[in-house]
Specification:
Layout: E1 9-11, H1 18-32, H2 39-44, H3 46-53, E2 56-59, E3 62-71, E4 74-82, H4 87-91, E5 96-100, H5 109-123, E6 128-133, H6 138-146, E7 150-155, E8 158-164
Antiparallel strand pairs: 1-3, 2-3, 3-4, 4-5, 6-8, 7-8
Bound molecules: coenzyme A.
């Protein structure tokens, strides 16, 4: 296990973590059964790829922002904040999604990364955020509950948690 000498931080995507990002994302895709075809073009023009991840992007029919959880040259994971919800995202997806690279899992990084993501969501003006979770995903459920997630209901296959970000209500 690598010992980190700096505290990981949620940052805008940056080319400084090229090697660990590509290694980590390949491992994550393989672990999750996702296509790895996008990694070739991303590695050929990493600066261009990073530029395409910065700022407000659009997917799932909504604007969203991407953050990387980084310590020095180490990329640990990704968190996205969707600025709006659609009926589909209300049921599955919510405002925030994340993953941690397999090599960095089970060390508390997702719990701390979501805490940093909630601080960013508060900074963006959200008073509350929705997170959804597959009932079989015990790790993600624990990450959400550790960050104040209140189980709202189950809609379709997903558990739905709201997290209150309004400091006036605490
Ligand atoms: C879910 C995920 C982000 C968790 O990342 P992580 O960095 O390992 O999480 P943490 O180390 O903060 O662990 C949080 C809790 O889950 C537990 N946990 C972690 N992996 C686990 C596993 N595979 N099975 C059961 N519990 C697990 C930890 O022990 C910890 O429990 P504790 O709070 O009681 O100590 C990571 O497994 C992942 O990226 N999975 C694939 C993508 C995904 O599922 N994303 C979430 C849906 S959007």
């Amino acid at each position: 296990m690598i010992t980190l000498t700096t505290q990981p931080r949620l940052e805008a995507p940056t080319a400084t973590v090229r090697a660990s990002y590509l290694t980590g994302e390949q491992a994550d895709c393989l672990a999750s059964g996702f296509d790895t075809g996008w990694l070739g073009p991303a590695s050929e023009d990493f600066d261009g790829y990073v530029a395409s991840c910065q700022g407000v992007q659009r997917r799932w029919d909504v604007p969203f922002s991407t953050y990387w959880y980084i310590a020095g040259e180490h990329y640990l994971g990704t968190l996205v904040i969707r600025h709006e919800l659609t009926p589909a995202l209300l049921g599955d997806g919510g405002h925030i999604g994340y993953h941690v690279s397999p090599a960095w899992r089970r060390q508390g990084h997702a719990t701390r990364m979501l805490a940093a993501g909630l601080a960013e969501a508060r900074r963006l003006g959200f008073a509350e955020v929705l997170l959804t979770c597959d009932p079989a995903n015990e790790a993600s459920r624990k990450v959400i509950v550790a960050n104040g997630g209140q189980l709202n209901e189950t809609l379709g296959a997903e558990l739905r948690y709201w997290i209150d970000l309004d400091p006036a209500r605490h």
